[in-house]
């Protein structure tokens, strides 16, 4: 069963299905000619350390507000048709989905630009924090490029 | 009364998720962080070194902002969302 919903900005514990999320975004408009997606996933190695587990937490309400602001600005400034942003929280295994951004536009150029800007802006402005568990213990990641 | 929320490593340092403060007169965010620093000196030092952003009612604000009764203040360590 699809877990995709009509909500364009979500922070959730559950995994998402990339294909289903794209289909939801395609449905409302027949003018979409290009879709760019960014999918962030849990990687095993960071700064030479083997990561066994990731845990994300967020500041409820503020994080959703910032994601909504990013979506609004992306649509306004890049001239795309629509954007959705989904970020997972809680424990995430290596290889699992973390974040998905879908930018839909009439042409590819604006969707590439909007998608790249949106993930950079998410990392800069959205109160979400990552804790990595390695063989030497747990550490809150301060910031990642 | 205002609520102060701690997140991520700050919650671990504080040993709690939030604090409540009764404020008298005009109090800025900076003055409030001095009050926090009295019981949580490590966090006070991080504020002084500008390692923490502070939000009022979900917007990051400068330290000279005056806090109002009922505000929700959050101490925010550097974000690390995304992949």
From TrEMBL, chain A:
<keyword id="KW-0501">Molybdenum cofactor biosynthesis</keyword>
<comment type="subunit">
    <text>Heterotetramer of 2 MoaD subunits and 2 MoaE subunits. Also stable as homodimer. The enzyme changes between these two forms during catalysis.</text>
</comment>
<comment type="pathway">
    <text>Cofactor biosynthesis; molybdopterin biosynthesis.</text>
</comment>
<dbReference type="InterPro" id="IPR036563">
    <property type="entry name" value="MoaE_sf"/>
</dbReference>
<dbReference type="GO" id="GO:0030366">
    <property type="term" value="F:molybdopterin synthase activity"/>
</dbReference>
<keyword id="KW-0808">Transferase</keyword>
<dbReference type="Pfam" id="PF02391">
    <property type="entry name" value="MoaE"/>
</dbReference>
<protein>
    <recommendedName>
        <fullName>Molybdopterin synthase catalytic subunit</fullName>
        <ecNumber>2.8.1.12</ecNumber>
    </recommendedName>
</protein>
<comment type="similarity">
    <text>Belongs to the MoaE family.</text>
</comment>
<dbReference type="InterPro" id="IPR003448">
    <property type="entry name" value="Mopterin_biosynth_MoaE"/>
</dbReference>
From TrEMBL, chain B:
<dbReference type="InterPro" id="IPR044672">
    <property type="entry name" value="MOCS2A"/>
</dbReference>
<dbReference type="InterPro" id="IPR010038">
    <property type="entry name" value="MoaD_arc-typ"/>
</dbReference>
<dbReference type="InterPro" id="IPR016155">
    <property type="entry name" value="Mopterin_synth/thiamin_S_b"/>
</dbReference>
<dbReference type="InterPro" id="IPR003749">
    <property type="entry name" value="ThiS/MoaD-like"/>
</dbReference>
<dbReference type="Pfam" id="PF02597">
    <property type="entry name" value="ThiS"/>
</dbReference>
<keyword id="KW-0547">Nucleotide-binding</keyword>
<dbReference type="InterPro" id="IPR012675">
    <property type="entry name" value="Beta-grasp_dom_sf"/>
</dbReference>
<comment type="similarity">
    <text>Belongs to the MoaD family.</text>
</comment>
<protein>
    <recommendedName>
        <fullName>Molybdopterin synthase sulfur carrier subunit</fullName>
    </recommendedName>
</protein>
């Amino acid at each position: 069963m699809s877990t995709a919903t009509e909500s364009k900005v979500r922070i959730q514990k559950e995994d998402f299905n990339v294909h289903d999320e794209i289909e939801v975004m395609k449905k409302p408009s027949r003018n979409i000619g290009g879709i760019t997606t960014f999918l962030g996933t849990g990687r095993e190695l960071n700064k030479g350390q083997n990561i066994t587990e990731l845990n994300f937490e967020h500041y409820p309400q503020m994080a959703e507000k910032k994601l909504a602001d990013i979506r609004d600005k992306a649509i306004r400034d890049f001239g795309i048709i629509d954007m959705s942003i989904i970020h997972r929280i809680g424990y995430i295994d290596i290889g699992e989905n973390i974040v998905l951004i879908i930018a839909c536009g009439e042409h590819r150029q604006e969707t590439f630009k909007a998608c790249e800007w949106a993930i950079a802006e998410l990392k800069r402005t959205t109160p979400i924090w990552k804790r990595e568990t390695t063989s030497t213990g747990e550490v809150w990641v301060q910031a990642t490029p | 009364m205002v609520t102060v929320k701690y997140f991520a490593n700050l919650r671990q340092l504080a040993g709690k998720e939030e604090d409540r403060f009764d404020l008298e007169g005009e109090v800025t965010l900076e003055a409030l962080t001095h009050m926090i620093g009295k019981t949580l000196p490590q966090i006070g030092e991080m504020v002084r070194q500008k390692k923490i952003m502070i939000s009022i009612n979900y917007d990051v604000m400068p330290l000279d902002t005056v806090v109002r009764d009922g505000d929700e203040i959050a101490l925010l360590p550097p974000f690390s969302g995304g992949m």
